[in-house]
Amino acid sequence: MTGLSSTTIETLQRMLETILMALMASTLGTILAVPISFLGARNIMEDVGSPLAAVMAAIIALPFGAALGGFIGSRISYLAESLSDSLILGLGGFVAAILLLLLVFFFGDRVLGGRRSNVPGWVSTLRVTLAVIIAFFALGLLAQLGMVFGDWLRDILGFFSFIGNFIYVVSDLLRVSLPLLMGLLAAGVFASYGSRLGQEAVLRLPEAGARTLTAGLTAVGTAIFIFMISYAVNWICLLGICRRLPQESPNLYIALAIPAIVIGLIAAALSLRVPPKRELPTGMATYSVTRTTLNVLRAIEPVIMGFVLVIWVGIGPFAGVLALMLHSIADLGKLFSEQVENIDDGPVEAVVATGANELQTINFAVVPQIVPHYLAFIFYRWDINVRLSTIIGFVGGGGIGLLLFRSTNLTQYRQASVMVIAIAVVVTLLDFISSTVRRRII
Amino acid sequence: METVSSRIAGRHLLRTILIVIAVLLVYAFAVQATQINLEKPLDPARQENLIRVLRLLADPDLVSVDAETGNWGPSEATIVTIERIVETIFMALLASTLGTALAVPVSFLAARNLMAPVTAPLAAIMAALVALPVGGWITWQITSRISSLAVTIGDFSLFAVLGALIACLVVMWLLWRAGASAAIEEGAARAERTSFFVRVILIVFITILALALVALLGLEAGAWMEDNLGIFWFVGNFIAVSADFVRVFLPPIVALIGGLLAASYGSRYGQEAVLSLQEGPARILTAVLTALGTAVTIFAIGSFLNWLYQFDHPQNWTTYPSLIGGAVAGLLSLLIKPKQPFAIGMLIYSISRSILNVLRAIEPLIMGIVFVVWVGLGPFAGIMALTLHSIAALGKLFSEQIEGIDDGPVEAITATGANRLQTITYAVVPQVIPPFTAFALYRWDINVRMSTIIGFVGGGGIGFVLSQNIQLLRYRQASVMMLAIAVVVILLDYASSRIRRRII
After folding, report:
1. ipTM more than 0.95?
2. Do residues B126 and B290 touch, judged by C-beta distance below 8 A?
3. Residue contact B453–A300, C-beta within 8 A
4. A-chain residues near B29 (CB < 8 A)
5. What SS3 class is residue B121?
6. Which residues of chain A does B35 touch, with a Cβ-Cβ cutoff of 8 Å?
7. Contact A30, A378 (CB under 8 A)
8. Which residues, including other chains, have CB under 8 Å from residue B62's CB and lie 6 or more apart?
C-alpha cells in the first residue's frame, strides 16, 4: 500500500494553518490600520488645532473619565457575570436590559413629560448616559451567554465545533474588552467635554482672565501628564529607573509627584508668554506621534516581534497571528495614510463647502476616493503575510515554519523538502490569485 | 414589474446573507486553526512573565560601569551590537548590489514585449542546443589548461608571474596593433578576414592567461597587504577574495561565454542554412539537427538527475532515453515545415518567469538554511540567500517595468535598422534606468530588514547574536540589539526614501 506519508499529511495541515494565520493577521491588521491611517494623514490632521487651555482641560479630564468609565465598566461586568451564574437569570436580565433600553430611548420623552426640545440639557445627557450603561450591561450579559452557548456548541457539534469555539472566543473577547471600552469611551467623552469647555471659556473671557485660566489649566494639566508618564516609566522600569526610586507606596507617589508639580509650574510660567486664544497645532502633534510609532513598529521584523509574543501567549499560531497583525497595522497604517494624503482636494472642498463637519468630510469626500487603493494595499499585505507566516514559525509562531525548522534542525532534509515544495506551490498560487483579483478590482 | 424587481432584490439579499455566512464560517474555522483564545494572554502567570521580560527589554544593557575605577563605558553588548549591525548593513549592501547586477540581464529574458518577437526555425534552435555544450566544453578545456599554465608559472617565483604578465600585455598590444591595421583596409580578402579572426582568438586566450596571472598576483599581494596594512587590512582581504573569485570562476565563466557564443553562431548558421536550402534538404537538415539537439538536451537533464539522485543504472536515465528521444524527435520534426519560425522567445520568457516566481515564493530565511549547510554559519550564507531572493524579486519587478515602457522610442530605433541589442541599448535602457534605481533602493530597504533576521538560521549579522541572547534569556542584551535594529532600519529607510524621491 502506498499513500501519503505522514510528513505530507502534516505539511498539508500546517500549510492550511499558515494560510489561515495570514488571513487572520491581514483582516485584523486592516481593521485596526484604517482608523490609525486617518490620524497619520498630514492633510487631515493639519487643520486640527485648539487653544492651549482646551488641550490642557482635555488632559485633565481624560484620566478622570478613564477611571470612572473603567470603574463603572468593571462593576457592570461583575454584575453581568454574577447574574449569569444561573442561565435563566442571565437570559431574563438580558431581555430586561433590552426592554429598559427601549424604554429609555423611545418612551423617555413621555415618561419625563414633554417634547424633546423642551427637555433640559442635563436630562438628555443623563438619559444618554443611562442608555449607554444599560447597553453595556446588555452586552456584558450577551458575552456571558455567548460563552455558555459557545461552550455548549463546542461539545455537541462534532466536526463543526469550530463554530462554537468562534462564538466562545468572540464572546470572551467582548467580555474582556467591555470595561476597557467603557473606560476609553468615558475618557474620550470627558476629554472632548473638557476641551470644549476650555475652548469656550478661553474664547469668551477677556485677555487677562483667559491668560490666568490658561496658566492654571497648564499647571494642572502638565503636572498630571508628567505624573502619568513617569508612572508608566516607573512601571516598565525604563532604563532601570525603578531601581533608583523608592518602591513603597507613599514614597513612590511623592517621588513621582514632585518633578511633575515642578514641571507643571514651569510650564504654567511659560504658558503666560503664549497668546491664550491662539490655536496650537494639536493635529500635527497627533500626526507626528502616530507616524513615528508606525515607523518604529515597521522597522522591527515580525519575526523579532514573534519572540516577545511567544513569551506571552505561548508557542503556537496565535503568537504568529499577533506578530503579523502588529506589523500589518504599522505597514498598512503608513501606506493607507500616504494614500489619504494623495487624494484629490476637489471633492473635499466641495463637501466642506456644504458645511459638513470633519467626520462627514471623511465619510463623503475621502473614503470613496481611497477604497480602491486600500483594497490594492490589502492584497499586497496579504501576499506579504502569506510569505512571512511561512517563516514566523522559526521563532515558535506556529504554521509550517515551526515544522520546517524542526526538520532541518534534525537534518531530516527529505521531510523539509516536502515543506519547501508546499511553500513554493502555495505562495506562488496565492500570489497569482491575488494578482488576478487585484487586476480585476483596480 | 414589481414582483420581478422584488424577487431580484430578494435573491440579492439571499446571496448577501449566504456570503456573510460563508465568510463567518471561514473566520470561525480560522480562529480555531490559529488557536486564538484569551485564556493564555489573560493567564496571570503568563502576564507576569511578559511584564518581567518587558521590564528587562525596557532596560537595555547599554553602558557598563567598571567596578574598580567607576568609569563609564559602552557595555559588551553595545560593542557586539555595533560590530554586528555594521556587518548587517554590509550584508544588505552586498546582497543588493549583487542581486541588482544579476537581476538586470535576467529581467530582459523575462520581459514579454522583448521576448515575444524572438523567433527562429527549429533547425536554428537545435543547432544552438548542439553547439552550446560543444563550445562550452572546448573553452573549458582550453581555459583550464591556461589556468594550470599560470599556476605552473606561479610555482617558479613571483618575478616569473610578473614577467609573464608583462609579456602577455606586450603580445596583446602587438596583436591588437596588427589587427587594427588590418581592419582599416577596405574589402579585406577572405585570407585577411581569417587572420583577423585568428588574431582575435589569440588575444582572447592571452587575456585569459593574463587574468589568471593577475589573480595569482592578487592573491599574493592581498595576503601581503592583510599582514602589513594595519587597520586597512580589509583592502588586502578584498583584493585576495576578488583574486580568489577570479581564479575559481574564470574557467566556468569563460566556458559559459564560449558556450553561449557557440550557440549563437550555431543558431545563425542553422537559420541561414535552412533558409537558403531547398525544401527537401532543409527538412533533412532539420531532422538531423533535431535528433542531435534533443539527444544532447535529454542527456544533460538525465545526467543532472543522475547526479542528484544517484540512480542504480545511470544509463537508463542518460544514454537510452537520449538515443530514443533523439530518434523520435528527429522523425517527428519531418512532419513540420522546416522554415516555420518557432516562438522560442516566449518559451524562454515562460521558463524564466516561472523560475523567478518559484524562487520568490521561498523566503530568504528558508534559503538561508540550505546555504548555511553549504558555506557554514556566518554572514556569507546570509548574503547568498538574500542575493538569490533579490535576483528573483528584482527580476520580476524589473521585467514588469520593461513591459511597461513606451513603444515610441523602440519603434523609432527599430526603424533605423538597429538590431536587437542596439534597440535595447538605445530605446529600452534609457527608459528603465530611473525605475530600476528606485526598485534597487526599495530592495535595499527590504534587504536591510531581512538581514536583521537572516541570522536566526545562522546567516550572520545581528540576528545571530539576537537569537542567541533571547535563547539564553539575556533580554537586556537583546534589547540593545532590537534598539539598534529599529534605529538603523528607520535611518536607512528615511535616507533611501529621500534619495528615491530625488531620483524619480
Report:
1. no
2. yes
3. no
4. 20, 162, 166
5. strand
6. 316-318, 398
7. yes
8. B74, B75, B77, B78, B480
The interaxial angle of helices A161-204 and A207-236, nearest 10 deg, is 150
> By three-state DSSP, how is residue A390 classified?
coil
Given a contact cutoff of 8 angstroms between Cβ atoms, the answer to whether A327 and A392 are in contact is no
* Cβ atoms of residues B324 and B410 within 8 Å: no
What is d(CA B167, CA B170) in angstroms, rounded to the nearest whole number? Answer: 5
CA distances in angstroms from A170 to A85, A122, A144, A334, listed in the order given:
19, 36, 11, 28
Q: How does pLDDT run across A387-427, given as a tens digit for each residue?
A: 899 999 888 888 898 888 888 888 888 888 889 899 999 99
Are B136 and B426 within 8 A, CB to CB? no
**Grid coordinates standing for B52?**
518581567
Check whether B181 has a pLDDT greater than 60. no
Q: Which of A393, B379, A395 is nearest to A404 (CA)?
A: A393
Q: Give tens-digit pLDDT for A51-85.
A: 888 888 888 899 999 999 999 999 988 888 888 88
> Could you read off the pLDDT of A127-177 as tens digits, one per residue?
888 888 888 888 888 888 888 888 888 888 878 888 888 899 999 988 888
Please give the distance of CA B249 from its chain centroid, rounded to a whole number: 15
Consecutive H or E run containing B342:
strand B341-342
- Look at the block and give the residue holding cell 463567518: B24
List beta partners, residue A280: A50
**Where residue B17 falls among pLDDT bands split at 50, 70, 90?**
very high
- As a whole number, the mean pLDDT across chain B is 85
In chain A, count H helices and then E strands.
Answer: 17, 2
Cell of A369: 476616493
pLDDT value of residue B330? 83
Residues of A in contact with B25 (CB under 8 A): 163
Residues of chain A with Cβ-Cβ distance to B38 below 8 Å are: 169, 172-173, 176
Burial B460-483 (b: 16+ CB within 10 A, else e): bbbbbbbbebbeeebbbbbbbbbb
For residue A129, what are the contacts with CB-CB under 8 A and spacing of at least 6? Answer: none
Number of other CB atoms surrounding residue B332 within 10 Å:
13
Distance CA B299, CA B461 (A): 42
> Per-residue DSSP letters for B412-466?
HHHHTT--HHHHIIIIIHHHHHHHHHHHHHHHHHHHHHHHHHGGGGT--SHHHHH
∠ Cα B90 B92 B94 (to 5°): 65
Q: Of A410-424, B68-82, B448-462, give the lowest mean pLDDT range.
A: B68-82
- In the structure, what pLDDT confidence band is assigned to residue A113 with cuts at 50, 70 and 90? low
Query: In DSSP terms, which residues pair with A51 in a beta bridge?
Result: A279
Q: Is the full-model pTM beyond 0.90?
A: no
Which of B27, B29, B35 should be substituted to probe chain A, the one whose Cβ sees the most A Cβ atoms within 10 Å? Answer: B35
Distance CA B424, CA B447 (A): 29
Compare CB distances from A20 to B33, B40, B456 and report the shortest one's residue.
B33
